[in-house]
Amino acid sequence: MSTHVDAPAPVERKAPTTTQIGRSIPRLESRAKVTGEAEYIHNLRLPGMLYGKIFRSTVPHGRIVRIDTRAAKELPGVFAVITGEDVRALIPDPYYGPAFHDQPVLAIDKVRYVGEPVAVALSEDPHIAEHAANLIEAEYEDLPAVFDEVEAAAATQVFVHDALRPAGMFPDLKHLHGRTKTNVALDFTLRRNDVEQGFAQADYVFEHVFRTPTVAHTALEPIVSVAEPRGPQALTIHTSSQSPSFVRSEVARLLGWPENRVRVRTAFLGGGFGAKLYIKLEAMVAVLALMVKRPVKISLTMEEQFYTITKHATTVHLKTGVTKAGKITARQCEAWWNGGAYADIGPRVTQKSGFTAAGPYDIENVALNSYAVYTNLPPAGALRGFGIPQLVWAYESHTDLIARELEIDPLEFRRANILRDGRPQATGTIMHDIATVEVLDALSSAMRWGESFDRGKGSIRRGHGIAIGFKACIAPTTSGAIVNLYGDGSCAVYCGTVDMGQGSDTVMAQIAAEVLGLDPQSVSVIHPDTDVTPYDMATLGSRSTFHMGNAVRLAALEAREKLFAIAGKALEADPSLLTVADNGVSAPSGRRLSIADVIKSTFLMQAGNIIGTGSFRPTYTSPSQGDGQSDDITPFWMVGAVGAEVEVDTETGRVRVTRLVNVADVGTPINPGIVTRQLNGGALMQLGFTMSEAVRFDNGQAVNASLADYKIPGILDIPDQTLAKIVAGCQSTGPFGAKGVGETGTFAVSPAIANAVHDAVGVRIFDLPLTPETVYRALRAAQHNPLEDQQ
Amino acid sequence: MIPFDLQEPASLAEAIALLDPDDPSVRPVAGGTALMLMMKAGLFQPTRLISLRRLEGDLRRVHVDEHGDLHLGALVPLSKLELSPLVAEHAPAVSETCRTLSNVRVRNVATLGGHVAHGDPHMDLPPLLIALGARARAVGPRGERWIDAADLFVGYYQTALERDELLAEIVIPAPSPDSSAAYVKFTALSADDWPAVGVAAAVRRREGVILDAVLAVSAATEKPIRLAAAEAAIRGKSTSSGSFDEAAEAAAHEVEPLADIRGSTAYKREMVRVHVRRALIKASHS
Amino acid sequence: MHVEGNILIHAPQSDVFDFAENVELLTQCIEGCRNVHELGDGKYAALLEAQIAFLRMAFKVTVELSRVERPNTIEAHIAGTPVNLVGKIDARAGLTLEPAGPAETRVTYALDVSLAGKLGGMGESVFRAKAKEYGDRFAVHLRDAVESKLLEKAP
Ligand SMILES: Cc1cc2nc3c(=O)[nH]c(=O)nc-3n(C[C@H](O)[C@H](O)[C@H](O)COP(=O)(O)OP(=O)(O)OC[C@H]3O[C@@H](n4cnc5c(N)ncnc54)[C@H](O)[C@@H]3O)c2cc1C
Predict the structure, then answer these.
(1) CA torsion sign, A501 to A471 to A626 to A339?
(2) Can you spell out the DSSP letters for A716-769?
(3) What is the pLDDT of residue A18?
């Protein structure tokens, strides 16, 4: 009965009267959130529940010689202390991961980073569990460790894993199976025409290296999971997860169970940003709960989040050939992604973002290499942008440097080379519904580009800069949804999209309401529960409005068709001529019945349901091995550009961003208010990654693993003016023309600011973040008076 | 966190009696914002905490006495210092400093006493209190005594307070009409971060000449300290910026900055130089 | 974290060296280091108690001389774990002895300390600030101990 659509359906006729699309209605859950009624797994307590506290590795790379749990077990109130060996007794091969089955539930034989879970102490009292974890002792035989992504990729002696273990799911990882003596988990290659020839045609060739550090998600609600055994053969997992469907299938796989015995549910998430994807604590609590036959809860502290998942540090090497007239003839890019000790989704980041590494430019000759690298650091995964901000940092800093060298206005240089609708991207896929030109035009006017401005005096210097980035939505992925009309005409949407603050509940309600002629505020959205809600790949990569939005729309359409079939009889009208509005169905004759009455007309009382289902998976051609070419690499493209105005204090190196303008192609916004806040939120998050955030490591130990020392922007760091501009666009395959927006605001922030700093004071920063000391040192170096580190 | 004994005495005398001069694991707690961070990190595992939250009276008061001295009770929250009209009138540099001291959540809870008694060199107010010539009143089993702010900070997390003493109040002497003070805070990460360098200056000047100056630096150094060489360099000089440069140069030479995630030794030395000059300019223009 | 410093000791280089290569004597110069006993193979076990204001931290450590090159160089490796807290301390201490006159020796110390676990994640800044002080105090203790030993020897 479900509508499976391979080729995206065109936009259907719009509801005639009220339209819910393009309305900035308030978020459905606002009231519950400000009154403290909103549900979070963090607050969940179950009868008999035990709290787990994790004992973590203190060495970056070592063989486990001995784990002594005696003192911990003897502490009064301790229920159990579990190690990796105990886990192995239950599951012979307890390794998980979305791309590679490389991560053990608890360390086995070896530890691979400082902070890796080694044992868990369980108690009814979380303080006793914590005390017990402090009493566990482990002895390790130190192994040499490797931290830098470029060094690790070239290493010939030190290997984080003995052999690569790709998960069977991805055909493009198969060739890696069993590979040994390497830290490169995935090497993605793209070749378009001939870069060498392109460089030969060029008048100038430019080469630069850019770096970004490890940064952290710092979701305000730290990662939390509770597992509740339902006898020995079934399990419920309550978890702050962005990917409940994946959790179900992966935990089932680990346990050797069919998926229908694992139920995974979520509530609201206090932020996710990619930290709560795939398996985080779920496998651990599931195994523990089955072992001790009690519900088990583990909630991380903010500090522990730094040991659980981070965003890839990167080194990106770019080489570009360009003619005197400013036409880019060739671009070559090598990107190394510091994936930490476990691959998590890193190999996907490497590939799915890797193929855009040449930027949103129309370049004849392109060669890209992108390496996912294992190191002895905490695992890196997805973080709002899925690798794109790191690449844009490199290619937009590089592009600006080239424009400067050629003495061409940076905006004109970009305009001249921009990838336009209808032209092929580096993979060969023809660009559709991509408003790159409109975005640049809007940016130009928002920045009053070309007009003169106060450049400052004395120690305060001003400058402005721009940058533009793009992203392909991850593919191929599937979303399913159910729309259910109850006997009284009220409506619920069952979907696996996780509302973690991005407003997805509201948008899904608006889409269903639009199709069914309802007030979106009255639609309830059932939160992910794998026993109830259909499969959804995950809430990630700005995919939900497009994928789940389409699924919800299809489900609502199916429900509406059923409704019309019934109403046709009651209203004595041709069902295809009926319309919906204001909770009712109308016939051309003017006769009208409320939805409740339509349902009553067939169930004879307030009873029954009208259920529509929808499933959506766009088409996709996977890139061919070797040259990375594909004629259908993504269902849609996102474009985001940023303009920044800065003030640099030349005596201290401190940079203040005074104005930040974000321009985005988001297709047709369903809820412009939410879209604007997503753009600004993304931009401000990336502002932190630009100005101050970096996880600092000392011999593999994160030394600033707290919000006291890892500084995210505060209210005083927000630019005086932060603007989001939406260019009018339409994603023809999207629900009502919409595309995703959760990450677009992050893309171009960092290089726009660095380009503005260059404009202000003439120095170029190649490594993020732009801390005052970094900028100060660059200023001193430019004056041929480098700051010496004398003792 | 390991369970510990929490006492909530109702009087200062009772509180003091509960302290233990020989046991460093017994501590008073006021707002708890600093102590809790250490407890959560496992760096401090108390056996007993003596909460000051039930203590009333002068400990919570801001007032000006008959000499014009400003009295700030140890349990006054930093947000009250920020907003108090009395503080704004008698020590405007203190109100201003509080505005960028951490964030409003912390300021609502953190107390002046905890701020000072913690002995953390990364705090904003200590150098200013030194520059303003403030004194602290400590109360212990042997009665009370006065400690000059300049003598209060003896090392990293170490103050001149004995383990069985409590800080009761800070007194800022009435400013003379020819004096003015300023604090400049330099943060290396977010704007509401702990300072990477904090410099306070109090100057007395007449007809464009600096009669004397007190300069103090914090955050870059192991404890808040006075900058004697810089003070000497400026004494008797004109308020033109040339003499400020000399003082800044002297300051850069006399400090021994500690490197940390907020800056290297060399960088912090430069920032001391810049901010000593800026503090002097700010103080002599206010 | 890395700290360095130096001190002038009024004793001939060979006397300083004799003293410093004796782990039991050398560890007496480290504040809070007690219960030193030999484990064999030149390895020693000790308890290191650090007190930073009201913060008290105890470490079970092993001490080992990793390099002894008369007359200039002595290097020690100190590794251990804190008591009642998940963590790790790993320190490499190097002493370089240079004659600064007939009966004078300049001792330069270099200390590289890495901390892991709770101590590293949140206590780093505290220890970083104290490391220099500890190093300098060690140098003073070393000087005093060597000089007083020399006095004992003197007729
Ligand atoms: C997120 C964050 C950001 C911060 N940023 C800044 C900043 O930018 N600038 C800045 O200056 N500070 C900053 N701080 C530090 C803040 O100022 C201190 O934590 C606060 O002032 C301590 O006050 P409290 O009352 O909470 O002290 P508590 O934590 O209660 O106590 C601190 C110490 O003082 C002792 N103590 C408390 N009261 C007394 C008393 N009356 N007599 C004797 N001993 C006493 C306690 O035993 C303890 O050792 C920040 C703190 C946090 C948590």
Answers:
(1) negative
(2) GGS-SEEEEEEEP---TTSGGGB---TTGGGTTHHHHHHHHHHHHHS----BS-
(3) 52
Fold of the domain built from segment(s) A3-21+477-617: Aldehyde Oxidoreductase; domain 4 (3.30.365)
Nearest to A742 by CA among A668, A642, A663, A674: A674
Token pair 């009770």 is found at: B73
SS3 letters across A452-484: CCCCEECCEEEEEEEEEEEEECCCCCCEEEEEE
The residues in B 237-276 lying below 8 A from A, measured between CB atoms, are: 261, 263-267, 270-271, 274
Collapsed DSSP state (helix, strand, coil) of residue B105: helix
The answer to whether residue A380 scores a pLDDT higher than 70 is yes
The C-alpha atoms of residue A463 and residue A400 are separated, in whole angstroms, by 14
CA atoms within 13 A on the CB side of B140: 14
Among 3.30.70.890, 1.10.260.40, 3.90.1170.50, 3.90.550.10, what is the CATH number of A41-145+223-299? 3.90.1170.50
- Say yes or no to pLDDT of A608 above 50: yes
Instruction: Answer whether A137 touches C (CB < 8 Å).
Output: yes
Evaluate if residue A8 carries a pLDDT over 80: no
Phi-psi map region of A204: left, alpha, beta (phi>0 left; psi -120 to 50 alpha) = beta
pLDDT at site A5: 44
* Atom from ligand 1 closest to the CA of residue B115: 21
Spell out the residues 6+ positions from residue A245 whose beta carbon is closer than 8 angstroms to its own: A264, A496, A528, A530, A535, A536, A537, A538
Q: Tell me, what's the pLDDT at B1? A: 72
pTM of the predicted model, to two decimals?
Answer: 0.95
Alpha-carbon distance A262 to A531, whole Å?
Answer: 8
What does the pLDDT look like over B113-126, one tens digit per residue? Answer: 999 999 999 999 99
pLDDT at C124 over 80: no
Let me know if domain C2-153 sits in CATH 3.30.530.20. Answer: yes
How many Å separate Cα A597 from the centre of its chain? 44
**ipTM for the complex shown:** 0.96
What is the Cα–Cα distance from B60 to B11, expressed in whole angstroms?
13
Q: Which of A301, A713, A773 sits opposite B267 (nearest CB)?
A: A773
Neighboring chains of B (3 or more beta-carbon pairs < 8 A): A, C
Encoded tokens for C121: 């994640």
Residues in contact with A180: Cβ distance below 8 Å, sequence separation at least 6, in sequence order = A159, A162, A163, A164
* Mean pLDDT across chain A: 95
Domains of chain A, by residue range, sit at 3-21+477-617, 41-145+223-299, 310-474+623-790
Pocket probe for ligand 1: among B43, B118, B223, the residue whose CB has the most ligand atoms within 8 Å is: B118
By Cβ distance, the residue of B43, B156, B258 closest to C123 is B43
Alpha-carbon span A239 to A253, nearest angstrom: 18
Give the pLDDT band (50/70/90) at residue A64: very high
**Which 8-state DSSP code applies to residue A233?**
T
Taking chain A, what is the end-to-end CA distance rounded to the nearest angstrom? 75
Question: Is A743 a catalytic site residue?
Answer: yes
Structural domains of chain B, ranges and CATH numbers in brackets: 5-51 (3.30.43.10), 57-172 (3.30.465.10), 179-284 (3.30.390.50)
Cβ neighbours of residue A100 closer than 8 Å, sequence gap 6 or more: A164, A165, A166, A167, A173, A185, A342, A343, A347
Architecture per CATH, domain A310-474+623-790, reads as 2-Layer Sandwich (3.30)
A3-21+477-617 with A310-474+623-790: one CATH topology? yes
Q: What average pLDDT score do residues A18-42 get?
A: 93
**Does residue A22 contact residue A670 with C-beta atoms inside 8 Å?**
yes
Q: Specify whether the CB–CB gap between A182 and A164 falls below 8 A.
A: yes
> Which two structure tokens, joined as six digits, stand for A497?
């999209």
Looking at beta carbons, which residues of chain A come within 8 Å of B3?
Answer: 127
Residue at token pair 């210097």:
A461
